[in-house]
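Hi,

I'm pasting everything inline rather than attaching a file, because the server keeps stripping attachments. The sequence lines come first, and each chain or strand is labelled.
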Amino acid sequence: MTSWTRKLRMGMVGGGQGAFIGAVHRIAAALDGQAELVAGVFSRDWDNTRLTGEQLYLDPARLYRTYQDMAATEAKLPPDRRIDFVSVVTQNNAHFAPAKAFLDAGFHVVCEKPLAFTLQEAEALARIVDRSQLVFALMHNYTGYPLVRHARHLFTSGEMGAVRKVIVEYLQDWLVEPLEKRGSKQASWRTNAAESGIGGAVGDIGTHAFNLVEYVTGDVVTAVCADKSIFLPDRTLDEDINALLRLRGGGKGVLTVSQIATGEENGLRLSVYGSKGAVLWEQENPNDMRVYRHGRPRETLTRGRSEYLAPAAMAATRIPWGHPEGYLEAFANIYSGAIDAIRRHIDGKPMSREEYEFPTVHDGVRGMRFIDKAIESADGGASWVTL
Amino acid sequence: MTSWTRKLRMGMVGGGQGAFIGAVHRIAAALDGQAELVAGVFSRDWDNTRLTGEQLYLDPARLYRTYQDMAATEAKLPPDRRIDFVSVVTQNNAHFAPAKAFLDAGFHVVCEKPLAFTLQEAEALARIVDRSQLVFALMHNYTGYPLVRHARHLFTSGEMGAVRKVIVEYLQDWLVEPLEKRGSKQASWRTNAAESGIGGAVGDIGTHAFNLVEYVTGDVVTAVCADKSIFLPDRTLDEDINALLRLRGGGKGVLTVSQIATGEENGLRLSVYGSKGAVLWEQENPNDMRVYRHGRPRETLTRGRSEYLAPAAMAATRIPWGHPEGYLEAFANIYSGAIDAIRRHIDGKPMSREEYEFPTVHDGVRGMRFIDKAIESADGGASWVTL
Amino acid sequence: MTSWTRKLRMGMVGGGQGAFIGAVHRIAAALDGQAELVAGVFSRDWDNTRLTGEQLYLDPARLYRTYQDMAATEAKLPPDRRIDFVSVVTQNNAHFAPAKAFLDAGFHVVCEKPLAFTLQEAEALARIVDRSQLVFALMHNYTGYPLVRHARHLFTSGEMGAVRKVIVEYLQDWLVEPLEKRGSKQASWRTNAAESGIGGAVGDIGTHAFNLVEYVTGDVVTAVCADKSIFLPDRTLDEDINALLRLRGGGKGVLTVSQIATGEENGLRLSVYGSKGAVLWEQENPNDMRVYRHGRPRETLTRGRSEYLAPAAMAATRIPWGHPEGYLEAFANIYSGAIDAIRRHIDGKPMSREEYEFPTVHDGVRGMRFIDKAIESADGGASWVTL
Amino acid sequence: MTSWTRKLRMGMVGGGQGAFIGAVHRIAAALDGQAELVAGVFSRDWDNTRLTGEQLYLDPARLYRTYQDMAATEAKLPPDRRIDFVSVVTQNNAHFAPAKAFLDAGFHVVCEKPLAFTLQEAEALARIVDRSQLVFALMHNYTGYPLVRHARHLFTSGEMGAVRKVIVEYLQDWLVEPLEKRGSKQASWRTNAAESGIGGAVGDIGTHAFNLVEYVTGDVVTAVCADKSIFLPDRTLDEDINALLRLRGGGKGVLTVSQIATGEENGLRLSVYGSKGAVLWEQENPNDMRVYRHGRPRETLTRGRSEYLAPAAMAATRIPWGHPEGYLEAFANIYSGAIDAIRRHIDGKPMSREEYEFPTVHDGVRGMRFIDKAIESADGGASWVTL
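And the predicted assembly:
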């Protein structure tokens, strides 16, 4: 029987009061009216979970004290009541265990990035997903922007020629002040290796930049040479990283990431230069994208133009050109892809992983490997390390 | 008893297959998880209504053949089932009757712009709303952008001084081709006076531009001198309008609107020059706004900055700076304002109209008057007409 | 005998200490090494002339007390010593008499805009120029930008189709303070009808905007409806003007000009929408120009690209793309055109006026007519006036 | 006796037909009417020199077959006839010998970058200059932009705090095609190690980027780790380089340079993030500069604003804000600084090197060292090399 007669039922782990990304997941998952949050454990603090659930108008019976309880209890509910998938939106050191628990209980998973706390966890998770054949979507939300998908099309189709040069920047400044000493929960866990893992900025936002390079070029980074910096006292994790990249196809690149770049907000910018053309895109102004070709007028492509955009870009667009879409809509595109894949699985016609537009557990392993190798390079005096 | 223990229940008139704006209303109304669509008559075509309802996973019992039936039937449902408000998203000539019907049945209303088919209808509706004390929100969605609200603050607080010069542009090009001859439903009714009223571009988008001027300046346009153009054969409504404006406070302005400005998408741009400073904002890039002061470095304000933005701007923001918001989020801000006002009404503590951040039926009357006077001016050879 | 074995010899009237535009003329005229300033009367104040001449390393024997003396004396010098042309860079009320004197003495003239103090003077000057067959270049320097010349090509060649809509803005803020009360010579004469004529902002910068419209479209403005404003106390000339335009070819337009638009510097911006495409150009960023075509990626043309720019645009460029040119270089292009025409005249092979890329006395008459009619319209309550 | 009663007399070595930069030097040197070209050897080809001299209206007696002849002959002319300084604008392998010859003959020198063919030549030249006490200006023309000078002020004054992160890009695409195989003289010598030296892109434009970093930060690069690329067949010099930088003050940086970045023109862009603020500047749009401070509205500074720009920035500006200046004007600022220094030397009151705003022979040595060390790093597998 088809799943298309109803909304999917969604559960959530994490995302209680004081968190940021949980609310984004809730809006994004529900944006197209295809999923409905029905259950959750929003915090290790039961009061937080109850309050959050109440504000979300959830049935109190579907609020849980632990993810283990939730996975077990939901699995026992009748098929027309239990959740279809769970979103794991906890901090980095609490991705693996709940994700594994829900996969083991037969649930599909949407997971925040970076995939796990360590590369080893990530690889273990990938094995579990592969065995289970369940849908696992990793929230590299920037790949959800329509023009990013068109950029990917321009390179993977060969239209831009061979990739020669990549410049990716991801610059923020929110850690330019010691917010972790002023009670900021966000800053506290992100500057704490026990909760974030070995990567600071490189884990939090460097993985997005890295993923974007591989997503758009369709190529693979094979080596990295990284220099990391810590400027504020008492910090132990990188605040800033500069890296040289080499790609399998012969291209070279620069990746520069910072959370102390004074005045920058969420400056993720990608420029890829191929032998036939180049693409320049900026996350803070995502509704257009520059395309250059040698000796030709520079082009600015705008979102929503079926006259010249690839189907994958058009499918990720909800409203006409000129009516700007933003971060939430891109985020929602990861969900809509995952929800489609889950519906296909429910309906007995699962998609192969190659058909996914959204990042998977294997992209998550790549990201964890990047953190590992970038930090290994930086700690080794910025020498080249194979990825 | 408080309404805050549940989502509000929403009905919809219009917005079936082939429409554009209905889907936007549905996403926007539900974005914050505070309202849920439960009933509707989406089209005069019953099949369209049924199909639309099915795709929205609605209870078939809450789909209706006519708005009259819906208003009457919903009114008889028990208070804990019936809709709290209705959104009227039909074409211009079908705003008045359903809006009146639902108001008469005691329902709050969110209505598309322009408010009505004629100024007379608009004025009648305003009288009904005023008598009823019900909430009536008019969808001038561009006033929902956070930085537009900050711009309004900058002028109404006096920080920018007296308004001297306004330049507002609203430029599109989608009617540069005769789409109404090629089966486009959107183009067909918008170029047909029997469905749109006497205004073409001036009604469809000129009213937004006009409303934005009055919203941001806090001032009132007192006279208009307009020149209208029709370039494509067989068109009878204005495709393009250029107008001079005079404001009550002594400022002057230019308003230029077009749906045949080749290459423009949804180019709503506002510049207001006051005696102390100026504000420049563009809808297609709504996450920043330029503020100029004589002899000082130019400023670019970015959305989400509590350090310097007015509370009204911050309240209209969901996610941090650097994570772009767009059209849907601004649209949703009109809904969130209306939903708050409706909850306050339900809870027996209605807001006064002055507390609304969202446009009301009286802004709708202003807009209809603007259409009337602009067309009167243009038909009189572009002479000055008092508004 | 050819003039190409030497630099042309230039004289100047005006441009002493305290003036702005005279120095610009001197740099621009000499930029290409084709002309050399050798004589001048820089001020009605002889001390100023002597000091200016000394700072310019001029031969004291070629400094004059009056333009009459200069015209008469230079005319008597042997052909291999006397000036070839004179630049008149005085304020508006002192263009006519020296221009006439030098023309009568057989000298070519480069003249600042607006052409004259009154329309009558302008028309008289045009008759003198036409009779004399001498070269007369009017300094509408913005037509000297390479991309403006390409824009003209795009419209006059028909590539952009019929002109439908023009939006031209020229916004400054330097008169937002009463500088004329604080000793500013520039502000003093520009706010004084006895020196500027009946136009304030409309004469000073409105004429540039008007000229740019006619230059780029190749069309003619046939009617204007203008509303003027004066905000500062004791001012009598317009500080700000908003106008509707109608073009002979059926296009419509908006012209908005201000010298009290707080925060604007020299914001001359032109957008022309044709039936096939549109061109958008901004003087403050003159090295690129946007070209739009319906349903196609937006193009940004950059200066210096022979692959796609018209010969007239390439001929006005000195250095390669990516190396920005500016105001002085555009200004110099008017001179280089005039100098070429003067050399051709000297060499006995005069160009016809149609071959000039630079504005002429007849463009100057158009500009004076525009001032007259815009002010007539504004003083008549912003009614339509035929141009 | 003061030199201020006359223009300085300039000679030139290089810059004949087919060259690009020589013409730029001539315009720039003469722009302010303070210097006049009177002598030259424009090419090793005597016909080229004669033709170039004729087109420049030079006295044939001042054209020379060799730089040796020119240096010797000019030195013997009476003081009121002989040149005051010479500009060396030849290709890289022909800077040292003529510069040395003219210095030895007692002439001041303006020299193109990179300073020499090898680091050894550069160091030798520096010793000669230091001994001679003559003025030697190196044409890192990008330091001549007014806003670059203001950026330097912002960092060296401490207003921006300690430098933490530098991102400098210099991207071109003109070598994306094998122009050296199609008769391009420019491409031919720049891709030939025998004429350019060991650096390709890194020498031609990387030295500008490097110099800009040290000029603006007032800091010194102490180590570099560079990865170089060659994509086109038969090329031997780097077309593209990515490098990590470390600064003495603790800052880190990324430098990325390319002449095969498809679609880029002359994209020199600098971002410097300090502990208190950041500066972002782009050469292709040099008339404004962004300044960021944490939690404050972003600022855009515009050229020519004495209200907030440093005196050094104002001194480098010729025309008011809003009237764009460009590449030639910045170039001319190097000349005006050199000419002032030469006048001071002539007048017997030489400036100390610390008073120069323009780059000197010692900046040239730094640049040659950068080429050496970047290539050493790249050839060593992109390892860290001390500078």
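Chain B has twelve helices and 14 strands.

If the labels don't parse on your end, tell me and I'll reformat.
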